[in-house]
Amino acid sequence: MLSSAHLGKEKYVNNLALKLLSRDGQASCTPPCAETHLHWATRETLTVTNADIACDYSSYPIYPFAFRTHTHHLGKVVSGYRIRDGKWSLIGRQSPQLPQAFYPANKDVNVKYGDTIAGRCVFTGEGRTSKTYIGGTSDDEMCNFYIMYYMDRKHAIPYMNCMESGSKQLFQLIPAEANIPIAVSPGHMNSMTHMRHSTDHQDNRLLLEMKKAQQVLDQDYHLEQVSAWPQSSLQLGQVSGLALDSDSNLVIFHRGDHHWGADSFNSQAKYQQRSLGPIQQSTILVVDPVKGIILKASGRDMFYLPHGITTDKKNNYWVTDVALHQVLKVSSDGRDRVLLALGEAFTPGSDSSHFCQPTDVAVDPETGNIFVSDGYCNARILKFSADGKYLSEWGAGSSDRRRRIPFRIPHSLVFLPDRQEICVADRENGRIQCFIAETGEFVKEIKKEEFGGEVFAITFSPTGDGLIFAVNGESPYRSAPLRGFVIDYSTMDILDTFSPEKKEFKMPHDIVETRDGCVFVGDAGSKSVFKFTTEKFHRSVKKAGIEVQELEEMETFVQTKVRPEHNMSKTAAIQEKQSVALQPQPQEEAEEEKKKSAAKPNREQGLLPAIITTLLLVPLLLVISIGVFICCRKNNRCEVKTEPSSMGGILGKIRGKAVGSLNLGNFFASHKGYSRQGFDQLSTEGSDQERNDADSSDSENEEYSALPPQSSS
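^ Peptidyl-glycine alpha-amidating monooxygenase isoform X2, sequence as received from the core. Prediction below:
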């Protein structure tokens, strides 16, 4: 981040690249790349080629502070400009043969909506006897102009690029300086030969790393259906709208026993079923997002064909009714008071005081301004003040003003508070368009093949750089599965797709996301609401629970009894399995760490006797052997007979005569220079029952008990 003391706002730093590419993604230089003549200092006339790039800028203001140029051997000069009201202002100009670094940009130049960004690369064919193409190898050429910029953080866009060839008419006005080469010393030329290959490699490696990082994010984030939600049937009609109230409860807007059919409207969009009267059921339900229990119901005898719904900071409902052709502000206190009505009931129109089947409403929480998508008949977004005063309206946007495609049913709206933007699901065009809420200026368009030609609804989450959640619909022209999408607002990449497990979407009509990351989809076709949450969360909880249980069981076993040596490998295998498998998620790490830290001392207590026993066994066996030998030599009491019996019997005889009565304390005390103190408690039998219970404790038993003897046959 870069802070600007002058403006007093935090700024977001990133880069913009102007590149020359062919339509298939490979670089090329075709017309309008122009051949011209430059006059060098020697007055020799050389033929050169200009590669021109230009794009209309359609986002929030950026402030360039550094630039970098890049070509291969034939590039002589690269220049970047901002064009505003026909005037060309230099951003930066440099020889691509100089060290590949970012150089200071013209600090007096900024770029805002409506400007054009343009760049020119000048090439010569010196030393070449064959054609040179724009491409990725060192024998090909490139034309790149990179801009490092900062912008207001809440409108931050991490990366932008421009790869459109500029028109000949536009570049006829480019300043003459863009065609004048910058002299470079031979020393710089030689040093750049190796540096250029390194720079190209770094650029390619950066792209690969970005793709890998994106793949990791794709793997870690996935939404799956919560099949047990709701716990009981909600008895819904066609679900047309979803919202969240200030308590994060789910608000459902449905049509009860009314249906939108082929006979609902005539050719002038007038509602034909007024005789049915308003919907008698409660059309607005407040539902517990965890259990799916209805907390509150309202909206009886008010609506004919509900469509969109949202809430404001005072918890009022803003709804649209396509039969009424109205936008209504309704109280949420259960008294069903209409606080504000926009439009004339049952009267379609296209002026500032009428709507034609309006679809959705979005509210700016700071100003209270409301935005209306209008609708099935009209193709516009209208803006009103909080008290219903008409402010402005606009249609579809486009980065190419010459090819602006009008809205075809602007069906869903979402307001982006941190960016002060309004985004629209342009249903029949299969795209999402975003605009500056204050001015209606076009910001960006998201259109994907995966949408299948239709986008029904969208919502927004400020997570990370911003996520857009969307659902598509069936298209008569293209076939694509009905599903939900999680889209990175900044990169416009699809991060995840999701759909129900047990039954498919029929007509997903609206979508909302809660603060805890749960996603709800209202389906008008199946008259139901689906709940989704991250699969990673559920799976990690189950894994952690199982493995923590295994850990606790193992620790309890080690504490109560020390295993014989030949069984320790199995315990070690269990420990190794746990160390590999136990990977707690971030939200569980504190709890897991607490359990581990509590278990650690107990584990050490359990392993300590095994270590002590192992260390004592070797000298103990040696002492026993010496004792047996002494007994046999001096007292002649050791009688081992080689009778035809099992080895267990032989060992039993030895144990009975030589080992059974041997006490280390007595043995050491019987020899000069040794004291009995400290040895009376430790015998070769190792039985806790043989000890002096009055002088022993549980901790002593655990730490100093020897291995039990083998039973005789």
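Residues 11-22+46-179 form a domain with the Jelly Rolls fold (CATH 2.60.120.230).
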